[in-house]
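Predict structure. Chain length: 697.
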Amino acid sequence: MDRKGKFRTGVLVALIAVLVGLYTARLFKLQEPAAAGELPDIQSYTFQTTVQAARGNLLDANGNVLVGNRASYNLQIIGYVLLSSDGPNQRLLNLAALCDELGAEYADHLPISQTRPYAYTLDELDSNWQRYFKLFMTQYAWDTDMSPQNLMRALKRAFGIPEDWSEEDARRVVGLRYELALRDVTGTGLESYLLLTDVSTETMAAIMELAIPGLTVQTTTVREYNTQYAAHLLGHVGPMDAVEYQDIYKAKGYPMNARVGKEGLELAFEEYLHGVDGTKITTVSRDGEVLREYWETEPQAGSNVVLTLDLTLQAAAENALEEIILDLRENGLPSSTSDSQGRGTDAEGGALVAVEISTGKVLASASYPTFNLATYNRDFTELSQDPYKPYYNRALSAVGPPGSTYKMVTAIAAIDYGGIGRHFEIEDEGKYTYFDEYQPECLIYTNTQTTHGLINMMEALEVSCNYYFYEVGRRTGINAIDTVAKNLGLGEPTGVEVGESIGYRANRDTKIKLYSESNPDNADWWDADTVAASIGQSENSFTPLQLACYTAALANGGPRYRATLLNRIVSADYQELIVQNQPELISDYRFSESAKACIQEGMLLATSGTRGTATSYFQNYDMAVCGKTGTAEHGMVGSSNGVFVCYAPADDPQIAIAVYVEKAAQGGNLSRAAMAVMDEYFQDAQSDRLPAENLPS
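Prediction complete.
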């Protein structure tokens, strides 16, 4: 290259370097905090907007959309455009005043109280917004130990708030200016300020009439709840906190402002429901004119999740459960049918779970009291203080003693491991006097001073004779009893996709775990513990879901399927099958034919025998049902808990149900809820519960 060419090349390189330097300087200037509304002297501004993908639907087994989406509108402010206009502070004051007038609560994360004397409110913010505040203070080179009064004075100076404004007006606008300033603070990653989310058309129209530069409408979707049922299972969505973002969602490419499943099925199937958010790049002029706009990534809607729940059965379960509990509170039970502790007028909450025996599919899971997902945020404070705990998912989380519904465990252990035949007879003497100090009584003896007389194992299940199982359990031993209970899923994970409690089985290890530190004298295992455990007391404590899965395993002769709420997952347009859930056998334990015959006959007698504990409730029922009642002592004041489990039909088991109500006084009365669910389940032909035709099979 000649000397002249080298000179021209050098000039060109130098010119490019100067231009890059100027551009870099301007970018750096743009990141500096704007003082008194001043902006860098640039003619356009490019920003990125994350457009959330439409979330997938949650459907029941019949194709009914339980949770879907509806169109929604957000109002966002592009700070560059607003702060380039005349009088931005006055415009923001007018905006805040109109929002107050309309009752529209806008986002203000400035951690300073709204009124004097000013105080910090950092504790009211989640970890993300606390971190943003610290970044803000660092970038402005302000001391984080500054008093809130001094910080307010500094903010008013930085944002150019007129000195003659009232403190109330100043605080309003400082909060809005803080939100805009955060978007230019390095490290927050925040996009344009969302002033209001899910705005009504009336509110949106009124605010847009202010013609505030940089105020734009963003179209999106929000969750819509098409049913009042299954609130404890469906869950809700909300913004991520800092821990969730860093530990879970950052690596998955989620933006920091993404809304995700927070609990229940929304959380369990988040990876399918969420879809892929889009990224839109927009360039605007100082006056807000869109100069260029394009998709960097187009949003892709989430997949649809088809559940095992049957909305008809779910409604029957929730309605029946509510009716029984409210009736107990108002009327109680006759003294002759209640336990010795009370009549059930102090009934609290309860649960009902129904599962398909051959697959483990959860057909219904009801918890009472319940709540409305559509008004979850609005009702949260009030319902959180309700002593009956409406937000508590009793079906999957509440553990309690199973009472006499555990006696089938003891019966199987006695036959298969204890060498005790099902026809082995014992004379019920009312009070069990094997021990000198511990002498428990049969419930009928406690209530009426009578006994069941000479009975065998099937009859003992029919009349729920404690005395019989005290003796049989002591002879069999806790190791055999615990082995059967474990194999049948009690005190074991069910495998269900949403969070569940595991509970405890009464055994030596459990006593050590529970008492070795708090009460070492009670950590040893005694024969008396075995006697109590044999009738479902001692440390036995299980969830209603576990009891339903246990009952299904009884109907199967031992094999136990993983509990599941998932049928399948299909694409957003319902045309592609993504996941087809298959039944999963998680225990292939099988008890003997003799034990099976004992359980089948004893549970059938409980609902149809001349002395069956549930016969009075089933006497006009047109189907043979195998059931078992339970009256469970809980160690607190008030009526005993009530439990009822069953499977049907007796000769061809298809559905297993467990009902549990705190302080219900006894279990037989709860069979009415189980019958309400069975009525719906068997009412129509099975084909009526097949998936809707528009869903891939």
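Summary: The chain has a mean pLDDT of 91.
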